[in-house]
Amino acid sequence: MKYSGDTVSKPVTGREAEALSQAIKTGGYLANEQAWATIHRITNRIKKHKSDSRK
């Protein structure tokens, strides 16, 4: 799917730059609160589905 909107990249500076640099050096990652909420919602759904299918 192609996004038709215009986007503008902005430089990463300050604490965000330090966190990103550390994540790259350690092989980690960064995620914002919305991403974490989505991850938890999906994993909870998977766990619920697995527990329901065992009954």
Q: Which structural class should the secondary elements be placed in?
A: mainly alpha
The biggest sheet, with number of strands, parallel, antiparallel or mixed sense and barrel status, is: none
Unreliable sequence segments: none
**Count of helix runs:** 2
Q: How large a portion of the residues is in β-strands, by DSSP E?
A: under 5%
Helix content: 55-70%
Quaternary structure classification: single chain
* Radius of gyration from the alpha-carbon trace, in angstroms: 18 Å
Query: How many E-type strands?
Result: 0
Distance between the termini: 39 Å
Overall mean pLDDT stands at 83
Report on this model:
The protein is mostly helical. It has a domain of 25 residues. It is built from 2 helices and no strands. The longest helix has 22 residues. The N and C termini lie far apart (39 Å). The mean pLDDT is 83.
Briefly, what is this?
The protein contains two helices and no strands.
Lay out the secondary structure:
Elements: H1 14-26, H2 33-54
